[in-house]
Write a structure and sequence with these properties.
The chain has four helices and no strands. With 85 residues, the chain is mostly helical.
């Protein structure tokens, strides 16, 4: 799965789970601008770990600042592993 595909899936997750509109979240949207806190990062880590089958800690997810960075982290962790979401 490419970074672009992962970006699209993460944006979709944020829209469904947190109610963001299509114009509110892009690959470069800063999580701080969205008001994310540690609880959101924990929830994201759990959801993404389940979706992609790779271990993701809250700390790793919180270290990313944008959807693009989060997608790159997921892509790096899934490299060489088949992923179906």
């Amino acid at each position: 799965m490419s970074t672009t595909q992962i970006v699209e899936k993460v944006i979709e997750l944020l829209q469904v789970k947190y109610g963001y509109g299509t114009d509110e979240v892009t690959a470069t949207t800063d999580f701080e601008e969205l008001g994310f806190d540690s609880l959101v990062f924990v929830e994201l880590a759990v959801a993404l770990e389940s979706d992609y089958g790779v271990p993701l800690s809250e700390a790793e997810v919180a270290e990313t600042t944008t959807v693009q960075e989060l997608a790159e982290l997921i892509e790096a962790k899934t490299a060489g592993h088949p992923v179906t979401v």
